[in-house]
Each structure stands twice: as structure tokens, then as C-alpha cells.
Amino acid sequence: MTPPIKKRFGLLGRNINYSFSKGYFTEKFENEKLVGYTYENFDIPTIESFWDVIKNNDPLSGINVTIPYKEEVIPFLDKLSKKAIKIGAVNTIRFTKKGKLKGYNTDYYGFQKSLEPLLESHHKKALILGTGGASKGVAFALEELGIEYTFVSRQASETVLGYNQITDLIFDEYQIVINSTPVGTSPNTEAYPEIPYEFFTKKHIAYDLIYNPAETQFLKKAHHQGATTKNGLDMLIFQAEKAWKIWNK
User: Fold this and answer.
1) Is residue 31 classed exposed, middle or buried when 0-12, 13-18 and 19+ CB atoms within 10 A define those classes?
2) Residue 213, exposed/middle/buried by CB under 10 A (0-12, 13-18, 19+)?
3) Alpha-carbon distances of 64 from 6, 32, 55, 112, 136, rounded to whole Å
4) What amino acid positions are annotated as catalytic residues?
5) Cβ contacts of 74 within 8 Å, gap of 6 or more
6) Which pLDDT does position 1 carry in this prediction?
7) Is the pTM for the entire model greater than 0.85?
8) Closest CA to 89 of 125, 141, 148, 25
9) d(CA 196, CA 4)
């Protein structure tokens, strides 16, 4: 007989069948014998369905948020943590004792914790590929680490580099390259950001927020040139545990 649900958690996103979070938390609940705890995917076509998720899934205790709603969800929340305000993106929602919805960002924490062990003294500047919600947590973490960064996008501007502007001189200046886009995620595993991979060296770090597949084309190509590579799995584990602490405040 299935025990009654005591606490319900879930992931809000679109096209999230691949989700790391559901498997991770389901296994966590089993291992820690948290009977009546459940974690579900809330796959919605647009953010306008947010209130349907809240109304139809009582008793909700916490929600993770993924692509493409990390920024779009903010207007639905009652308050934000100080760091979520600074970052401008939310990936964790806590239901307070007063029934309010409070947004947090644990992406920056997970990224920072997973990148730190790779850093050496020459790693001073980073390129962030992409300008979406995930890139904002990355940028905040780099600021906390004292690493300068520049965004790269298909649309160049005064403050954002275009992919076609990345040269050997840019690679000499920027020793960390971070893919914060979904390009290369399963099932589109042959795709990769259009950058000149031949300029990676042993002094570079190539970091991909993607964890499925474990080695993206972005990482393969950088590794082939001798770069240190890292996928997003550890980041996800760190951010998930941080979210768990927030939900259990």
C-alpha cells in the first residue's frame, strides 16, 4: 500500500523528461527513509500554468526551477533572497510557514563549489557562452571568486561578444570557457557551440553546465586540445543539497 504523501517537491520546467532532480531526490528519500516524501516533474508549456501546479499538487513544500523559467517565474513569487535579487534568476522556491513563495538561487553555489578545485593562479578571466538564466548564476559565482568575465551570444553588443568575434587573442586572454547554453544536451548530442576549439590549450578550463551526455562535443573538442574539462553533474549535486537545506529551514 502506498503511504500518504507527507511532503511533495518537484521540478518546474519544459521538456524535462531527462531531469536529474527527480532521480536524485527520489533516491535520496529512499536512502534516508523519508516515507511519504515525493518528487515530481512539473512539465508546463508556458509559465502561465504556474498557478495550476501550485493548486493541483498540495501539499507542496519546495520546487526547483529549470530552463526556461528561471527568470520568468520571478513575478509569481512573494519575495526573493538577497542573492537571487542580485543574480536575477531563481532555481529554488521555498514555501514559507506563512504560505508565501520565496525564491532563491543555488545554481551559483553549485557552480562555484565545483569550479573552485580546478582553479590555478593563471585562471583570471572567463567567457560565458549564453546569456540566459543559467548564465546569471555563473556570472555571480565568478564575481564571488574574483574572476572577470565576458558574455558571448549570437547577438553581439558593446558588452557582449559575438561567437564570430572569438579569436586566438581572445583565447589567450580568457583561460576559462563556460557553456551555459543547452546546446549539446541529449538528444541533440552532436551539437556544440560555434567557437574555434583549436585555440584551447592545457592552460584552459572548459566547463559545460550540461551533464547529459557526460561528455558533450564541447568538452570532447576542448579535451582533444589538452584543456581541463568538467561537466555539470557536481554542480547539480551541490545545488540540490543547498536547495534541500533551504526547504528544511
Assistant:
1) exposed
2) middle
3) 18, 20, 17, 19, 16
4) 70
5) 80, 88, 89, 90, 103
6) 67
7) yes
8) 141
9) 54
